[in-house]
Amino acid sequence: MDSLDDLGKISELDKGNILGSIDALPRQVSQAWQEVSKIASGLPEDYHHISNIVVSGMGGSALPGRVLHSLLLSSNLAPLEVVTDYTLPNYVRGDTLVILSSYSGNTAETLSATNEAQSKGAKIFIVTTGGKLAETARAKNIPGYIFEPKENPSNQPRMALGYTITANLALLSGLGFVKVGEAEIKKVVINMEADVAAMGVRAPQKENVAKIYSGKLKNKVPIIISSSHLTGVAHAFKNQLNENSKSFAISFDIPELNHHLLEGLKNPSHLKTLFHFLFFDSELYPDEIKKRYPITLDVVEKNDVESDLVKLRGSTKLEQVYELLVLGSYVSFYLAISYGIDPSPIPWVDYFKNELAKK
Q1: Pick from 16, 85, 238, 322: CA 20 to 30 A from residue 65's CA?
Q2: Phi (first) and psi of residue 203, to 5 degrees
């Protein structure tokens, strides 16, 4: 039996039930869409009249902003910026929508940004499961989505992206800044359910693309390549490789990498044996982007670096974002299992937070 088909071994290692959270991603999407759509419909009228949007969050709670920024870049009706810091941009004012995202509700940087958003008179919407952020929202009558993560049994923020990406999307849709409706979300969920069935633990390794790619990435440095609408969710995949697989990983986007990275594959020469490029290609990329992929792949191969080209199948940009979310989540999980580790604990992140709290 292939190790990634050994259900007993997987269950023994996965003490925090990361797998349960991945399997539940379609249900996370459904729950968040239904709940936030109702909340958005009841927001004050002035929330519909804003000039710009800022999404403030850290780590897993910043990923929804990154995903939406790349997904909506060509269609959003208001500028959107992601902030991963203690402070907000100077331009934030009364006609700015500030979405404050903290899964725990206790993230120091996000709480600092909350205070600043209030002092600037911005329109605020929170996304959290509780903590100090929820307390502040209730005390100050700030609208938001304080949700019960019943479909995230691992209770890890990075594994709640079905909730948090969709919550942000439903909010912006309800306010009229993006055009996404119930029918599109239902199709996304149907596709995700099919992907979960195809990539889940009971799908044999020889037919399971997530297990196959995790095998190729073992003992390698994953280098994630994407473009356009996929750069945000590719960043999320990279983060999950860091946290779930405890693996160094890095992401680049085309066309930007064509202006520098191609010259960076020579030295130190011994490192190239560690690299494995994963190119995420899409028929929905602009033509000027699509023609760059085979040439970039050719350069990588000529430098004797391993690579794979992954073609996303979804018929819309939205479908492809959630498709890569499911694939990346499973790959990071199986890579952790192949290393013989529990993907849930993040001991060095926790150590850092504990040490910082002493300062």
Answers
A1: 16
A2: -80, 125
In contact, 122 and 92? CB cutoff 8 Å: yes
Ordered alpha helix ranges (H), the chain: 7-13, 18-23, 25-41, 63-71, 108-119, 131-140, 161-174, 182-199, 209-217, 231-243, 287-290, 292-302, 317-338, 347-357
Catalytic residues: 243, 259, 353
> pLDDT tens across 63-81, in order?
998 998 998 887 777 889 9
Q: For 29-64, b where at least 16 C-beta lie within 10 A, e where not — what string?
A: bbbbbebbbebbeebeeebeebebbbbbbbbbbbbb
Q: Where are the domains of the chain?
A: 3-12+195-338, 17-180
- Over residues 254-271, the mean pLDDT reads 96
Tokens of 195: 């992907």
pLDDT(128) > 60: yes
Q: Return the pLDDT at 43.
A: 97
- For 103, the 3-state DSSP assignment is coil
The answer to whether 46 touches 91, Cβ cutoff 8 Å, is no
The answer to whether the Cα torsion of 281, 282, 288, 289 is positive or negative is negative
Q: What angle do CA 167, 171, 172 make, to 5 degrees?
A: 120
H-helix or E-strand spanning residue 276? strand 275-281
Answer yes or no: same fold for 3-12+195-338 and 17-180: yes
Per-residue pLDDT reduced to its tens digit, 305-337: 999 999 999 999 999 999 999 999 999 999 999
Least Cα distance to 238 among 227, 248, 228, 253 occurs for: 248
Cβ(82)–Cβ(168) below 8 Å: no
According to CATH, the superfamily of the domain at 3-12+195-338 is: Glucose-6-phosphate isomerase like protein; domain 1 (3.40.50.10490)
CA distance 207 to 210: 9
Residue 1 has pLDDT above 70, yes or no: no
Q: Is the pTM of this model over 0.85?
A: yes
